[in-house]
Amino acid sequence: MTDTSKELSELAESIFGDADSSETGFDAALWESLEQTGLARLTLPADAGGSEAEFADAAVVLTAAGRNAARAPLVETDLQAGWLLHAAGIPLPDGPLTLATGDLDVTRTVTRAAGTLHRVPWARAAAGIVMLAGDQVLLFDPAALTITDGTNLAEEPRDTVVVEGEVTAAGVEEHVGAQLRLRGALGRALLLAGAAEGALAAAVRYAGERVQFGRPIGRFQAVQQQLAIAAAEVAAASAATSAAARVADADGFGAASTRFAVAVAKTRAGEAAGVVARIAHQVHGAIGFTREHDLRLVTTRLWAWRDEDGSEAEWAELIGTEVLDGGPDALWPLIAGAP
Amino acid sequence: MTQTPTRLPALVPPPVELPPRAATLRAEVRAFLAAERADGAWAPRADVWLSGWDERFTKELGRRGWLGMTIPTEYGGHGASPLDRYVVTEELLAAGAPVAAHWVADRQIGPTLMRFGTEEQRRKFLPGIAAGEVYFGIGMSEPDSGSDLASVRTKAEKVDGGWELTGTKVWTSGAHHAHAFFALARSAPRDEQNRHAGLSQFIVELDAPGVQIRPIPLLTGAHDFNEVVFDHVFIPDTMVLGEVGAGWHQVTSELAFERSGPERFLSTFPLLTALVAELAGTSAGHDAGTRRAVGSLVARLAALRRMSLAIAGALESGAAPELAAAVTKDLGTRFESEVIDAARLLLAIPPDPGAESGYARLLADAVLHAPGFTLRGGTNEVLRGIVARGLGLR
Description:
The complex is a heterodimer.
Chain A: H1 3-18, H2 28-36, H3 55-67, H4 74-88, E1 97-100, E2 105-106, E3 112-121, E4 128-133, E5 136-140, E6 146-148, E7 158-166, E8 168-171, H5 176-209, E9 211-212, E10 215-216, H6 221-251, H7 256-284, H8 295-305, H9 312-326, H10 328-336
Parallel strand pairs in A: 1-4
Antiparallel strand pairs in A: 2-3, 3-7, 4-5, 5-8, 6-7, 9-10
Chain B: H1 22-38, H2 48-51, H3 55-63, H4 82-94, H5 100-116, H6 119-131, E1 136-139, E2 155-159, E3 162-169, E4 180-186, E5 199-205, E6 211-216, E7 225-236, E8 240-241, H7 247-258, H8 269-279, H9 288-316, H10 322-346, H11 359-373, H12 380-390
Parallel strand pairs in B: 1-4
Antiparallel strand pairs in B: 2-3, 3-7, 4-5, 5-8, 6-7
Helix pairs in contact in B: 1-4, 5-6, 5-7, 8-10, 8-11, 9-10, 10-11, 10-12
């Protein structure tokens, strides 16, 4: 780790570590700290209020956010909605932003839209809700929308939004949609990798503290073997996601190499999520299955996030399609690169 | 979180970039392998680093400068970086090329001689290793010492001008073809307070008087493993490896190099390639479930390669990421068997050990070799014990 990323890691850890993650909903105090430190719009250009950092830096911040179960729309603001608005040349509203997906009736002149958008992340807290409809980027003013609260498995806001009225709109190039999807998947995969670390850390700590049969349960080989299996999953998720961030930095989101690396990252982190959550709960016994215990903050996120921005089934199918369409001679170069 | 979370030790080192010349090197190796295959020199096989003994192929690699790459030029090597060697090695394994003859010598004997060997030992063995003409084995396990390596009983007794070795080593791959091996032996009586003390490593030339080599056939009947028996074998003082009594330290540092390489997840890669060849363009290959299963395997493989490369980068910069190496080997060797499960379930082609080559043969070899994947180089259970210690649990 370079000095800069070490500093960034320490900064992120201190900010997320100080936040109260046991509540639900948007953490306004945390968001304020993230804005003050430039982490809220880390990768965006300066003219979009961003810090112009690399995705490798975002990887450090997002894994720390996942590890600490941060209640903030970082992926949505920085990697998705903010980027999309900037790509369309629409000025960014201040504050947290979010991205909606779904179908709307949009007028031919793109000045009015109507319809219902489901499971919009953090909609109730967003200063701007953005979506891509065909080649048009739409920005809705939340004040003019009807928002009904909903959540994902981790009780993060996933709201229903009824749109009826005027929108700000601007066109973007066709490739933006594919890049948007990759950005979301990379961000979510990094959060997953962080949450998996958090669950493993909690289980290791608990195994060292909890005494049964006269010794800490972590002294039993049966428990050690399970934690080692979880550690391997955490390592794989971490390697795949940090590599994907680097490939995105080096090659850009339009490159085939980035598409493959992100698909690998989301698939691998998604597979790790289930294994790590299961083992972390098994090690914690009944207490980890209660509301009073903090383990749920990371394990419910693992269960929620693995299905968001494309489950491992969806991304694995994309990889499998590329592999089977490419045939046997293209398989190894896909993994190790074509010189 | 309300409680400060325990910070975990680094489970994987930071990502590395391959050096710029890696792309050229990779292209050269691929072109060579393609030409060899076009000539029908060999057919891709599973588990080639155990079973693919082909001295012609090994010498050809030596001629091209792809063995002993990290050995300095003054000893006949090429002074290249471990990451250069990584590129060559992964290309050979991915192609299912016959690499067994030089495998041990190239992977660990060369680097160990550079680390612990004397000038005389280096001059004697390294040029031959780099040329692909000198082959080595490993003499660690014994009939009563497997995972518990510190319990070795092969005895080294000091005699005039050297040592006399008596005992038995087992599971020595290729000893019947190899020129020499490193034997771990007890050179001082066992101390129950410090079981790791009193062990030493010796370079044993396998044609020395008193050495007997007997085959231990694999369950297939194939002869890869051997039992090597020493009956008062004289080893001159000049063939002690490193320091007398430091054998444990030397052997465990060797293991760090041995555990995280691409051979820990590529043993069945030729089967995966063959599976893709069989499925591509068929209706089965267009099934979403099949594509997910193949995609999931490729994702696991790509992640393992990232882990393994990151460790290679850390080793190059002088770190010894023992914990990361252990998780990579645990995950990678399990992956090798996951490829077999997918291959069996996605295609109805029964394994055929009698087939000359092709899918049925690859599948047969993979199934019959699979028990070894999670045993060799430290069983997965022992590796998880290392991980547990790294996590602070023991």
